[in-house]
Amino acid sequence: MEDSKNDNLAYKLHYLNRLLMLQLNDQIKPEGVSQGQLPVLCCLHDLEGQTQAELCTRIQVEQPTMANTLRRMERDGLIRRIPCEQDKRQSRVYLTDRIRPTVEALQQKRDEVIGKMTGRMSVNDISDFHRLLDSALLALETNNEI
Amino acid sequence: MEDSKNDNLAYKLHYLNRLLMLQLNDQIKPEGVSQGQLPVLCCLHDLEGQTQAELCTRIQVEQPTMANTLRRMERDGLIRRIPCEQDKRQSRVYLTDRIRPTVEALQQKRDEVIGKMTGRMSVNDISDFHRLLDSALLALETNNEI
DNA sequence: GAAAATTACATAGCAGGCTATCTATTGTCA
DNA sequence: TGACAATAGATAGCCTGCTATGTAATTTTC
């Protein structure tokens, strides 16, 4: 049976994701940025001053994951957090001046890795790939028992 | 720009993989098995007595990753390791009697999650999905600069 | 046959995902 | 107003991936 030899969608997706994240990491490492931090940089590049909770919602990770990511990013000088006056529980997150000018180049690096991945695909293939991923995402996001 | 709003293949793949692994975990957790352990169980179900290095090659993870996974699986009573007489550096890995009879049911659980993911796809879609993942894998496995 | 290279595996340390739980603040309502 | 509920974020602890490095056994080479 093929599936027991790892020839199944779950294995392929998992392995492809690992390859992709490794190569993405390699591309953005020179700027001192890692794979998990890039979505936060992009999200803040769209709109600075978001709260941790807002970043969680947009990037779709759990709150403690974001808390850890932000801690590392602050440590590495990618973001700064400014406590909110009105609500002392929350902070607003901003890019540092050092990283702000490089975010678009980082997005380009990411797109190059995606380009390598889709190198042998036709335009139709790529739009099918998007469509199939969207369909799979929607199916898994739908909250009911299997 | 759409890509800066996480509407890109890298983000989708990453997110889909996370959803898939979470739901796979939920399905196999009752048997005391987790997502990263399932490929090892399947691989040993095909052929018991493989070495750590052989498992690495088949499952395509780095050796320290496998070492850790095997340590947890031994701790949890999923495998046992028998030192090799001829070559004292290596051990051969076997399923425990407890887990051996359940491996096929676990594979079925995995296939159910995959089924949920592909629920709205046609047979053609699914074969396209395989083809596109294979193409992407091949492109990223090819070892040259972007 | 001994030194050197290789191999098999273990360990340390990090990133980034998760759940569960804690603290402090804010909001609600009787 | 004072108690309780809800919210924002931090922390602890786990898994699974990675790189770098260490150690013991084996193989190769001179």
Automatic annotation (TrEMBL), chains A, B:
<feature type="domain" description="HTH marR-type">
    <location>
        <begin position="6"/>
        <end position="138"/>
    </location>
</feature>
<dbReference type="Pfam" id="PF01047">
    <property type="entry name" value="MarR"/>
</dbReference>
<dbReference type="InterPro" id="IPR036390">
    <property type="entry name" value="WH_DNA-bd_sf"/>
</dbReference>
<protein>
    <submittedName>
        <fullName>Transcriptional regulator, MarR family</fullName>
    </submittedName>
</protein>
<dbReference type="InterPro" id="IPR000835">
    <property type="entry name" value="HTH_MarR-typ"/>
</dbReference>
<dbReference type="GO" id="GO:0003700">
    <property type="term" value="F:DNA-binding transcription factor activity"/>
</dbReference>
<dbReference type="GO" id="GO:0003677">
    <property type="term" value="F:DNA binding"/>
</dbReference>
<keyword id="KW-0238">DNA-binding</keyword>
<keyword id="KW-0805">Transcription regulation</keyword>
<dbReference type="InterPro" id="IPR036388">
    <property type="entry name" value="WH-like_DNA-bd_sf"/>
</dbReference>
<keyword id="KW-0804">Transcription</keyword>
